[in-house]
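Dear support,

We are seeing what looks like truncated structure output for some complexes. This example has two components. We would appreciate it if you could run it in full and send us the complete token output so we can diff it against ours.
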Amino acid sequence: MTNFLLVGFGATVGAFLRNELTLQQSKIKIDFPIVTLLINILGALLLGIFTAQIHNGAILLLLGTGFCGGFTTYGTFNMELSQLWFQHRVWRCFWYFILTYVFGILGFVVGIHI
Amino acid sequence: MRKRGEIFLFLFIGAFIGSDLRYLESLIFKTSNGFPLGTLIANLSGALVLPFLIHYLQDRYNLSPRVVLTLSTGVLGSYTTFSTFTADTYHLYASGHWWLLFIYLTVTLVGGFALAILGNYWAAGQAFNDYAKRKRGHNND
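Here is the complete output from our reference environment:
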């Protein structure tokens, strides 16, 4: 039961932060979902750091499964990919895909080793 | 929806439900070989449902912006996760489960995109069905 509360509270803060950052997307004059990209890379980096540094299971649930899990998103990323696809912006779609996966996984690897 | 406190409350409810649903799935679908089936199921189902919510359910049920925020950014945003995917990938790589790593990467990369596309078509198909039904209804008047 406590575990569910830890995950839930962590995810709430993560989701709120993600929402605040996503609202900045409309203010940036770049026609590319750069905010979600940065959120996912940063979240993966943080999860790598947490995984390596935190050895308490409860705190890892709060910050890892909860906060990083709620902060990063796979649903919105794929939705944005599909939007670029339907708008025939195939190259943007391609780069968004590549950048997210390459730098996301790289982010976690860097995080776990620093 | 200008108040930050209000937004936080709605996201609180949504993110709590979404993240715990994902956590529950990771407990239910625990595999003996370490394959992250729970994360995969959460991510793929979330990728399919999000476009359907945005492009169909929102209009069909006249959902208010706060309900949409709760369900999309809150529930589905926290239900699906990217960071855990990168962690799973690293662990499969580090433990030398090459086949599982290959399957996990392929299904996540191709499946998520394909299901998001499918979710858009699903929404369009439902919207068309509703339209056709309304038209038939008018013809019978």
